[in-house]
Each structure stands twice: as C-alpha cells, then as structure tokens.
Automatic annotation (TrEMBL):
Record bears the keyword Amino-acid biosynthesis: no
Domain of life: Eukaryota
Transmembrane segments: 137-157
InterPro entries, alphabetized: CCDC90-like
Species whose genome carries this gene: Arabidopsis suecica
Keywords: Coiled coil, Membrane, Mitochondrion, Transmembrane, Transmembrane helix
Gene Ontology terms: cellular component: membrane; mitochondrion
Localization terms from the record: Membrane; Mitochondrion
Keyword hit for Transit peptide: no
Protein name per the record: Uncharacterized protein
Length: 158
C-alpha cells in the first residue's frame, strides 16, 4: 500500500500560527512539524510541546473517529440483520398465509366435491327408485295386456 506524504505548511499570521496539513493518513510527522515550527523561529521546547499537544489531540480525534466508524458499522450491520430478520418473518408469514389460503381452497374444493357426490348419490337413488317403479308399472301393464292377448288368442282358437 503506497502512503502519500503530505507537506506541512505553517505560517505566522498576526500573533498565531496557521497550518495546512499535519499528517499523512493516520500518522503525524512529529519531526517534520517540530522542524517546521523551528523554521519560523518557535523555540524547540515550544515546538515540541505544540507538536505533542497537536499529536495527542489528533490521536484522540482519530480514536474517536475510529470508534464512531466502528459503532456506525456495527449499527449498520445490526440494522441490516434486523431488517433481514423482519423480511424473513414477513416471508414466513406470507408462506403461512398462502398455505392457509390453499388449505381453505382445498377445503372448499373438497366441500364442493362432497356436495356434488351427495347430489349424485341422491339422483342415483331417485333413479333407482324410479327405475323400480317403471319396471313395476311395465309388469303391471304387461300382465293385463298379456292376459288380454291370451284371451283373444283363446277366443280365436275356440
């Protein structure tokens, strides 16, 4: 991994100092900062003290930023996992609803089939009863007709 080095530009503005960049990535160039401060006539002890203060502040801020990033990533992963669980629960509920609807439709279908079968059996029973009656009437009609024919046949013979 290539690290880019940043230059430190410190200039005196009125009574204070202004700087553009003190670090490259997560690393503070302490020696470069001390030399830059000394270059603008800041005594070595003050330059080192300023560098130490800036460095500790930078490290403290970086620590907080890293912790915030970790919390943010943890929060995001927790939220994603929570949303995933919710979606999975919703999918399972939908599957259960579909199964219940299918069971209900199957029950309705079975009920319709039962009603059709019951109607068919009633018609069959009615047909059998009617068939018996028709056969009975046919026999009762054929007996007198046969008797009449026999009588006519007898009367023709004799």
């Amino acid at each position: 991994m290539a690290m880019l080095k940043r230059t430190i530009s410190i200039v005196r503005i009125g009574r204070g100092l202004s700087y553009r960049s003190l670090s490259s990535g997560n690393h503070v160039d302490k020696l470069g900062m001390v030399k830059a401060l000394e270059a603008i006539n800041v005594p070595s002890t003050q330059a080192e003290a300023l560098t130490g203060a800036i460095t500790s502040g930078f490290e403290s801020v970086m620590g907080k930023v890293k912790a915030d990033i970790a919390k943010s990533e943890e929060y995001k992963s927790t939220r994603v996992a929570e949303e995933f669980r919710k979606m999975r629960a919703d999918i399972e509920k939908m599957r259960a609803d579909i199964a219940a609807i299918q069971a209900e439709e199957r029950g309705d279908h079975d009920n319709h089939i039962h009603k059709v079968e019951q109607g068919f059996n009633e018609l069959k029973d009615e047909f059998d009863a009617t068939k018996y009656k028709v056969v009975k009437y046919a026999i009762y009609t054929l007996i007198p007709v046969a008797a009449a024919e026999t009588g006519m046949l007898f009367s023709m013979i004799y």
